Amino acid sequence: MKKFWAFLLLILLLLMLLLLMLLPQKNPRIRLQSQAFINQPVLQVWEKLSDLSQLQSYLLFVDDSEVTKLQKKGEGTQRTIYLKNKHNVQEEVIEWDQGQGFVLRLHKPSFFLPFHDVETRYRIESDDEAGLRTDLAVTLTVRPRFGLLGRWLLAPFMTTRFQRLLDDLADGLKYYCETGLPVTEQTVTTFRQ
Fold it and tell me: Which of these, 141, 107, 115, lies nearest to 34 by C-alpha position?
């Protein structure tokens, strides 16, 4: 009789977990932002930022990145990012505002990733009247998988990791724009202190 009740309890628990995973189809998005002030004019920052094949110059865990279509800039441009862990991901530009920013969406995320979609918005504007300093804002929008269960279990873990990634990205882009040099482990360690 105890086995029956234990089995029934297990079935009920599994049904509740399944319900939590499937309940809300429109899972709330997690939105994170990082900002950097770059000591370069907007035009020079835009020149580096809009070159979508140079992500590895300002993000340490990227081995290489390449634009995979003939179109090198603008809406519809796609790039493949080769990560140091030997995986790769594809992104597509879904919004392009010449000289001011763009939005990239993770293209066809793997089933094994803990989120449905990821969008990264890069925005730049002049920070001073002389136009010698640029304000960079990078916003990451993520929607976790697995409904409420994903929101409760994955969001705290994802938020911390993604915020660190965003901060590294903004600081790395600042370093790359100001020096023309790619980031190294030493420079990233300096950012984090």
Answer: 141
For 181, phi and psi rounded to 5 degrees?
-105, 145
Helical H runs in 23-107?
A: 42-49
Opening angle at CA 35, ends 177 and 68, nearest 5: 55
CATH code of the domain made up of 28-192:
3.30.530.20
CB-CB contact of 118 with 128 (8 Å): no
Tokens coding 170:
């903004």
Query: 176, 59 in Cβ contact below 8 A?
Result: no
186 CB-contact burial (10 Å; exposed 0-12 / middle 13-18 / buried 19+): exposed
Q: How far apart are CA 71 and CA 21, in angstroms?
A: 39
Write the pLDDT tens digit of every residue in 152-176. Answer: 777 777 788 889 999 999 999 999 9
- How many Å apart are CA 182 and CA 129, to the nearest integer? 29
Instruction: Determine the Cα–Cα distance for residues 80 and 52; give it in Å rounded to an integer.
Output: 10
pLDDT tens, position by position, 10-59? 887 877 766 666 655 566 788 999 999 999 999 999 999 999 999 999 99
pTM over 0.85: no
